[in-house]
Amino acid sequence: MMSYQTYIFDLDGTLLDSLTDLANGCNHALRCNGMAERSIEEVRMFVGNGVKKLMERAVPGGSDNPLFAKTYQDFREYYLVHSLDHTCPYAGIEGMLCDLTAAGKQIAVVSNKFYAATQALVAHFFGDKIRVAIGERENIRKKPAPDTVNEALKQLGAARETAVYIGDSDVDIQTACNSGMPCISVLWGFRSKQFLLDHGATTFIESPSALLDI
């Protein structure tokens, strides 16, 4: 069916399985500063609101910890070098993007990951399939604010009325709502179906190819 003209995707947990690299970066920074490491399942629940919030949740005492700024910087420096160690697209993502591109659809990524990493990962894995990739920047509010979605629509020259948002978390559901567009929640990402239902999700897909039937 592919009834939409523009598809705006979250990145981590939606297009890319990046959890191991995020956890490794988090634990590297914690180790460097004498703090206890976090389990992969803890990190799974910490992600979704940007890497600063990830580290606020991982560091004891959060941003009030005297070592927070250094720990956060240690994460950023490590992750920019190691963001591709284990990260890869989920099965079926590349085929789905090829089908959308072949059908003349417009595609963008909006992420709460910092801008440089968002751009690098999207370019590395998806090349010219995704023309617009927007990450966290100082002059633009991060999700769930609609700013990054609005910027993506502007760069694409796309109409909001024929756009859909695809993500894996409660933040994505809120982002779609704040952006005035429908949300499709994926079931292969960082959150369970029950978690998504509890946070207002209404439309689900179990595989990337299922997006083509909506």
TrEMBL record:
Pathway: Organic acid metabolism; glycolate biosynthesis; glycolate from 2-phosphoglycolate: step 1/1. Its EC number is 3.1.3.18. GO terms for biological process: DNA repair. One of its GO terms (molecular function) is phosphoglycolate phosphatase activity. GO terms for cellular component: cytosol. Keywords: Hydrolase. It catalyses: 2-phosphoglycolate + H2O = glycolate + phosphate. Pfam families: HAD_2 (PF13419). The keyword Hydrolase applies. Belongs to the HAD-like hydrolase superfamily. CbbY/CbbZ/Gph/YieH family. This is phosphoglycolate phosphatase.
